[in-house]
Specification:
The protein has 341 residues and is of the alpha/beta class. 45% of the residues lie in helices and 17% in strands.
Amino acid sequence: MADLRTQYLGLELKNPIIVSSCDLTSSVENIVKAEEAGAAAVVLKSIFEEQFLLEGGIDSAEKTIYPEARDYLQSRALLGYAPAEMLKVVERAKKRVSIPIIASFNCQTAGLWPELARQLASAGADAIELNIYTLPVDLETSSQVIEKRMEEIVLASRQAVNLPMAVKLPFQVTALPHLVYRLQQAGAKGVVLFNWFLESEVNLSRRQVHYFRGHGQLSQVLRWVGLMAKRVKCDLAASGGVTTAEAAIKLILVGAKAVQVCRLVYERGFQGLRSLIDGIDRWLTSQGYSRLAEAEGELSWKELSLSYADPQAASGYFRVQYMKAYTGAAERKKKRDSEEG
């Protein structure tokens, strides 16, 4: 049996599996079930910035809630799980479980969160995950401006509280490694890759556009975790529809310190976590690893690039692979055609 312990955000985890932020993590009872099933930590259901504004009665020119968002929150009774309720969940859960509890904020601006962060620290939260949502639709707002706002949110929260902090990012970022480096400089102890935002579809019969929650793409997570692991001085957690031990192992090999899961729990219940953890253990043992740490990042770009003289040479290697991938299919077809002819 392998030692599955790992470190994430400075927290000692018994294994790398974390239940990610979702409706299931809004109650103490489900947090207890997650621990009993083997989860190493839980990220609480996110508090939206609009919930914070409505609960506090904040309404100004600078902090105005879009009317449809207000109506949705009120009609769906989402104000029942607001900052005050999150504080109660943290306090009660800490009395019943021993695993770390990570609070989650879905935010757009820097001014609101420091006070809530302080309250959560007092309630016993072990860490904070900032789920920063910004859809870049303004033609005059550059990526630099958006990324600067992200830095400001991290910095404001970092100055307010001493809890370790992770930032959950979208994958549509121009220069992701550089942004992660800047967030690390601002005080982030970890980054979660990725937040899968809205996707679009068109209903032809009604001639309407519909939006739905995005689905994780394992290949994207593998790529970016692998490219940044051991190169940035913050922990990388993977989030992207992981439902099998094989997928989790791949992410650990490229450098993930933790793997967040959600869909698995919805599909198979909390007991699905046990088969995931057991599967990781069996694979490590079968491959001769005695500790999870021995496999972490073994296939990261940092490790693989050590055989190259410098980063430019390693980058050139990826360029060649790109060329082979896009020319290889044509070459194979040409060969088949000549053989058939």
